[in-house]
Amino acid sequence: MSKRAVLEVIALDVEDAVAAQAGGADRLELVTDMAADGLTPSAATVAGIRAAVDIPARVMVRLADGFAAGDVDRLVGAACAMREAGAEEFVLGFLDADGCVDLGAVERVAGVLEGCRWTFHRAIDRAADRDALRKQLDGLPGLDTYLTAGAAEGVDEGLPTLVAEAGRRGEPGYEQQLLVGGGLRLEHVPVLRDAGIDGFHIGGAARPRGWGGPVSAEAVARWRRVLGD
């Protein structure tokens, strides 16, 4: 089994962030509008969360539902605004109409992050060629994580891909941490840990009352216990 696992929890506001930290989360992903699968939060929300907790937080840079970049100038402006609000880590990822990585958009946004660490999110699960995407992004400053379920349908379908990619860690394009999320359940954990995967991302699983309710510290703590201290 690999080193201590990272547990990342989606937080929409200060209440979520405080509960996630109390439950043992290692890191937050800060978003708004989960009906659109998570968009860039307000600068005020980011500043408030940074003042309320002391665990790392990665801020989403995404302005519309889907994986197209859209107006890249607006994306760059959003990233700059998040940095001014105190963000030091980020989440982003864009595909073109053919399902290939939109390298121009990714490079422009990553460029204004000036080396800050960032995650390429579940756009990889919609990519036409996962391996090609990884190799195109290889070497981009700050990229240290892929958030993925292994398949667009979720971890149930993507488990074989996740295990296979974990086995390639260290190869060109595969140096980054695998952060598994998207239909992730506690029963998936033993197989993923046995494969050496040490990153886990939860959203709805941290909210017993669904997305209309807050993060539960108890639910996060249950994940922390299963993943180990």
TrEMBL record:
| SUPFAM superfamilies, alphabetized | CutC-like
Query: One GO MF term, please?
Result: copper ion binding
* Regions crossing the membrane: none
- Which InterPro entries does this one have? CutC-like, CutC-like_dom_sf
- Write out the similarity annotation: Belongs to the CutC family.
PANTHER family per the UniProt record, alphabetical: COPPER HOMEOSTASIS PROTEIN CUTC, COPPER HOMEOSTASIS PROTEIN CUTC HOMOLOG
What's the protein here called? Answer: Copper homeostasis protein cutC homolog
Q: Specify the species.
A: Streptomyces griseoloalbus
